[in-house]
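Write out the bound-state structure for NAP.
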Amino acid sequence: MMPASQHNRESLNSKVALVTGSAKRLGRAVALRLAQEGVDIIIHYRKSRAEAAEAVAEVEKLGRRAIAITADLGNVSEIKWLFDETSKQFGRLDILVNSAANFLSASMDSTTEEIWDASVDTNLKAPFFCAQAAAPLLRRTNGTIINFADTGGLLGWPGYIAHSVSKAGVVMLTKVLAKALAPEVRVNAIAPGTITMTGDPPEWEAGFRKLAPLGRSGTPSDITDAVVFLALSKFITGQTLVVDGGSTL
Ligand SMILES: NC(=O)c1ccc[n+]([C@@H]2O[C@H](COP(=O)([O-])OP(=O)(O)OC[C@H]3O[C@@H](n4cnc5c(N)ncnc54)[C@H](OP(=O)(O)O)[C@@H]3O)[C@@H](O)[C@H]2O)c1
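---
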C-alpha cells in the first residue's frame, strides 16, 4: 500500500511549465529542475536569445520537450501573444513561474519616473498580466502559479525603493490571485534572500555570511527545491515562502 505521506503527492511528470526570464540565472535553474522532474518547458526570454537556445538544448538533454519564445513583458499584447503561442504549441499549461524581473538600484533622491515605471511594470504588472493570460489554460489543468518576490519586498531597502515596492506588490498579488483563481489554480510566491550565482562578486558572499543565521548565501538549488515543493503542495495557496537562510529574522 502507498505510504500515507504519498497520498497527496502527485508527480510533475509530463506537465508543461512556462518560466519567464529563463534563458539564464535562476530562471534557467528553475526550468532545468522542472525538466528533471519530467516537465516540458517553455523558455521565455527577452534579449538573451543565445542563452535561451542553450537552455532549450539542456532541457532536451534531460529528455523533455522545450521551445524558446521571446516577449517583452513590459508590453501586455506581447504577453498575450506568449500565452497564445504556448497554447498553440503545447495545447496545455500546468505551471507558470513568474521569474523575470529587473533589479534597479535607486534611493530617495535618485529614483526617477523612468526607474519607478520600469520596476513596477516588469516586476509587478507583468506577473499580473501573465497570470491573466495563463488563467484559462491553468484552470483547465488545475495548474499553479509561482511568483518571485524578494526579501526587499518584505524589509524595504532604501537604496532600492521602487524595487522593494514592486516586490511587496508581488506578495499581495500572490494573495489576491490565490483568491481570484481558487479553487482551480493555486498561487504562491518565493521570496529569496541573496542567491549566489556563478560569476557574482565574492564580496557579496562575505557580506551575506555575517547577516544570515545559517551562515551562507543561497544556491540556485535552494530555490528550485522550493519551486518543486510549492508545485506539489496541494493545500498551500496565497503564501510567500521566504528562502533566505534566516536573514530576515
Ligand atoms: N538572484 C537573486 O539573488 C535574487 C534574490 C531575490 C529575488 N530574486 C528574484 O528571483 C527572480 C530571478 O532572479 P534572477 O537574478 O535570475 O533574475 P535576473 O537575472 O535579474 O532576470 C531574469 C531575466 O528577466 C528577464 N527580463 C527582465 N526584464 C524583462 C522584460 N521587460 N521582459 C521580458 N523579460 C525580462 C531578462 O531576460 P533577457 O536576459 O532575455 O532579456 C533576464 O534574463 C527575479 O524575480 C528576482 O527578483 C533573485
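---
The chain has eight helices and seven strands.
Residues 140 and 184 are 8 Å apart (CA to CA).
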